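Hi R.,

Here's the chain you asked about this morning:
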Amino acid sequence: MSVRTARTSRTRFLAATAVALAALTLTACNDGAGVRGEGPSDTSAASARPSGTASDAGTTAGSGTASGSGTASGSGTTAKPAGGNTAGSSGGSKGASTSGTTRGSAKKGGGGSAGQSGTRNVACDGSTTKTTATLVTRPLNHLLLTVTNTGTGNCDLTGYPIARFGEAQSVPPVAEETHPQAVVTLAPGESGYAGVLLSAADGSGDNGYTAKTLEVGFGRGRGATPALPAEGVYVDDKLTVTYWQQTLDAALTY
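And the predicted structure, written out as tokens:
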């Protein structure tokens, strides 16, 4: 090979090498630009996601994770246990309240009844009282029934005397207008009273007869058999009794 030919070949080789290097440099520049172009795009996308984009919200809404919607879902989840707890608490409170109310009611109602048993007195009857029958001059044709508490505790004299004179098949009615304002309570040694209209003062009564025995019932418990005057008492169909009264005067007003 001649020197000229060698130089030409070398020149061509250098030229080809320069072209190749230029191409490589251009390619490298394009690749770098591509990398730099993607970098900001990724960074922007990454920044956009945390800021709560539509895509993120869609993901959140779809997945029901702990972000915006997720918080609502979390809130719903929280509400569920809270509701459960509330229901539980409510049930517990209700139970406690019901239980408390029941205990309170029992204490108040049953205790009221028990309290009434403790504070309200037993009914007076013939086992703890003494009953007498006295013929009075005024009002005319009246008999006074007196019940005295012979027991050691208070007793309540309720209703009216269930009086049976002689062999009568029925008992006299009560004068409703004599109903007392309160229950008659007798302390030991105290007395209660009832008046008995034996017969019409003007003689207008019918079916009259003379009774020599008297039985007095209290509506419960043992009755009494107070003695009548030896000659007995005259009664007719006007026979009427009063309610038990706290005072003698109240018993003889009818």
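The helical segments are 3-48, 54-63, 68-119, 248-251.

Let me know if you need anything else.
M.
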